[in-house]
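Histidine ammonia-lyase
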Amino acid sequence: MEKVVIDGYNLTLEDVVKVARGFYHVDISTEAIDKIKASRQLVDKYVDEEKVVYGITTGFGKFSDVAISKDEAEELQRNLIISHACGVGNPLPEDTVRGIMLLRANALAKGFSGIRYSTVTTLIDMLNKGVHPIIPEKGSLGASGDLAPLSHMVLVMIGEGEAIYKGTRMSGKEAMEKAGISIIKLTSKEGLALINGTQVMTAIGALNVYDCKQLLKLVDIAGALTVEAQRGIIDAFDPKVHQVRPHPGQMESAENLRMLLEGSTFKTRQGELRVQDAYTIRCIPQIHGGSRDAIKYVEEKVSIEMNAATDNPLIFTAEEEVISGGNFHGQPMALAFDFLGIAIAELANVSERRIERLVNPQLSGLPAFLTAKGGLNSGFMIMQYSAASLVSENKVLAHPASVDSIPSSANQEDHVSMGTIASRKAREIYNNAVNVLAIELLAAAQAIDFYEGYELGKGTSIAYNEIRKSIETLNEDRIMYTDINACSQLITSHQIVKKVEEVVTLH
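Tokens:
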């Protein structure tokens, strides 16, 4: 059985994808089990002593000064979950929900949360047996953690809420029964340990970063095809140019272009047809490279957050201390995901400008809108409209969420991150960018079909063939959205990148 073992410290982006999308089995390490149990013993000690500790023997937020007796511990934790499950909007996708559950279990495995080991195993059993809570996408401020959406996850653990089990939506209680998982009763600290954290924003962001890393390869492929369709000048990608401005992303993108275009007879040298190309062709390494470096930064932040203890209070067993802090605050993620959204939006922006160069006869030297019978046929005219609409929407979505804050809990929580909004926006920008790049690939392939007697590059020829396996050359007008959808599927399935990488290893 293929599995991922969690210990709170070593979870990778690839591990998250394996569990979220590949349905790998999840186990917890022996060392992590010992830490969880030791942390719980300290919580039980404080409860027995009726020591005043936030979230264990007190209320929450503004109610932190209200003492809670030992007899009320279970009721307090249940009330926390049912009152905080205030999410609205469409349910998050299955892979995101699985990512959330995995990240929450991994945070608990660090042993700073004071939760019972049996409660952690319930969450892991849900993952392994395919019980996926219905978690509405909206309702988190991203500062006391993702309280509302995580509460919807926990509802199912206590036999409430709704879940998807084997493709069917049903009550949480029914899903747990069908999967053979016992419903639990939360006790002191457990409700807070399960919902006080940044796992929703981080799961959405982690899966997005993984997909964006694949998209970085695809945008270089799309750019290279457009270079060929425009008989672009290869000198601008010379390694000497990029070594004197050694940003890693820029150098990687330039090298990708050189490898993809190796052997191409479409490419030209400076002065052969023209002295220099427009920026959207000549500056592909610089533009794509900037987004590469931004996404690499975000990946570093996500990797830290995936293995962080983000709830409150934290239990330090060695010192026998319980400290109320602010690790639930999503600001590090909020800024990173705003940056991610901007980086992806720029990839779509430059792609749309390359599309314009392909369809505009004054810029391309090709038939207007890439159709041989213009007038009777509109060709790619409205394809560019659609791309322009998507990049314009992305500009709105790229406005940072992290610069906003609305005080909550009677001003006890007087600065919030809006990090979950930032992560959701970045995902929507990614979805739009995929469709823009699909249009560029189609336009570039169509433009190439107007040439005769030329050979594509080592890598671009593979990409072109993959496109043409699914989408025929446009000879007469036809329904175009199906072409866009088919090409988008080639992108999101990573089919084009996988095939190209059989002959060219891309950065």
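The mean pLDDT is 95.
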